[in-house]
Amino acid sequence: MTTHLHAPPISDEATRRRSLAKYRRRAAAYDSTCGPTWSIRQRSIDRLQLQPGQSVLDVACGTGLSLPLLRQRVGDDGQVCGFDHSAEMLAHARARIATADWGNVRLLHTPAQALASVWASTRPVDALLFHYTHDILRSADALRGVLACARPGARVAIAGIKYFPRWLGPLNAWVYLKNHAYNGAPGELRSPWDRIAPLLADWSFETTQWGMGYIASGTLSEAPMP
Ligand SMILES: C[S@@+](CC[C@H](N)C(=O)[O-])C[C@H]1O[C@@H](n2cnc3c(N)ncnc32)[C@H](O)[C@@H]1O
Questions:
Q1: Domain-embedded: residue 28
Q2: Which DSSP category does 143 fall into?
Q3: Is 111 a pocket residue for ligand 1 (Cβ < 6 Å)?
Q4: Pairing label, strands 200-208, 213-220
Q5: What CA–CA distance (Å, rounded) separates 126 from 128?
Q6: What is the pLDDT of residue 196?
């Protein structure tokens, strides 16, 4: 008889189905929930050190809240691309772009796992923003798909939710439930960055929100993802 000490891992497809169902319900009110993390968004984008004329990929861009900040930094001559698997979230991002009338911001409707084939001959980007993209950070296939679209040496910034340190452990049930509301695979909150961190040089890390959040950044190494 086999005893499972941990829940068996959920497949990427099951995770995505759960995520899609959650964002179908959440899309309309999503922006109104993002006020408290606005400074984390700004600080994450600062860590990309974007220059005018550069290109940046907004990973799982959702409703496109980061797009104006990214567009502002790369300017008229740069390129901003966002992708997401949720049609409902992307509809808001599309409306944002149409209102601003930017010619150099584009969106792709695709899962991260299929991004590399959609990207194909497009030039690799100079920077990647992973802002609250837990499901993607926890999937090897999703990460591989995203990293294939960036050049070696690209700047990478990551922000998200994590468990409080052990001495605040009793609060972690609440952290899990908070993450559950937004993700298909809400666990693995001890160190959600641990798949991507080994692939980045110049790793820099800080905690936010009294330890239940983090911002990290680095530079994509030459070595391909295993
Ligand atoms: C918490 S929201 C963050 C949205 C945006 N990055 C932001 O900062 O506002 C997470 C987003 O990840 C998207 N997502 C989750 N799994 C995905 C996948 N495998 N491929 C593409 N998008 C995914 C969801 O649809 C959702 O829009």
A1: no
A2: H
A3: yes
A4: antiparallel
A5: 7
A6: 97
